[in-house]
């Protein structure tokens, strides 16, 4: 994000968010220059605040029950270009510059399964083996 928002702007953004009963909001990551949808994850208020304050995308990991700074173990980071809130306030769109692959399976994005010939199949191969991502 070229210019990081002020604390007042961050507070206003957070006030407009409608977090669910678990204190989370859905966040869609989209590559800013191509429009490719990369992934869906969750953010809590702390993750939203950190993302806006640092310009590096941070999520909330439900499986680890803690903040998850995208790329902290894999090196595949997301630099924030813009953070947008939908009309209902219950979904965030993060326009990002994805460095490396977005998916933990080593694929460019997480949406690599589709129905083909009446079966659910992968339609994209990994660009990097997961073992190399998580040494």
TrEMBL record:
Pfam family name, one: PRA-CH
Signal peptide (residue range): none
Residues reported to bind Zn(2+): 87, 103, 110
Reactions the enzyme catalyzes: 1-(5-phospho-beta-D-ribosyl)-ATP + H2O = 1-(5-phospho-beta-D-ribosyl)-5'-AMP + diphosphate + H(+); 1-(5-phospho-beta-D-ribosyl)-5'-AMP + H2O = 1-(5-phospho-beta-D-ribosyl)-5-[(5-phospho-beta-D-ribosylamino)methylideneamino]imidazole-4-carboxamide
Keyword Magnesium: yes
Complex and partners: Homodimer.
UniProt protein name: Phosphoribosyl-AMP cyclohydrolase
Organism for this UniProt entry: Plastoroseomonas arctica
Source organism phylogeny: Bacteria, Pseudomonadati, Pseudomonadota, Alphaproteobacteria, Acetobacterales
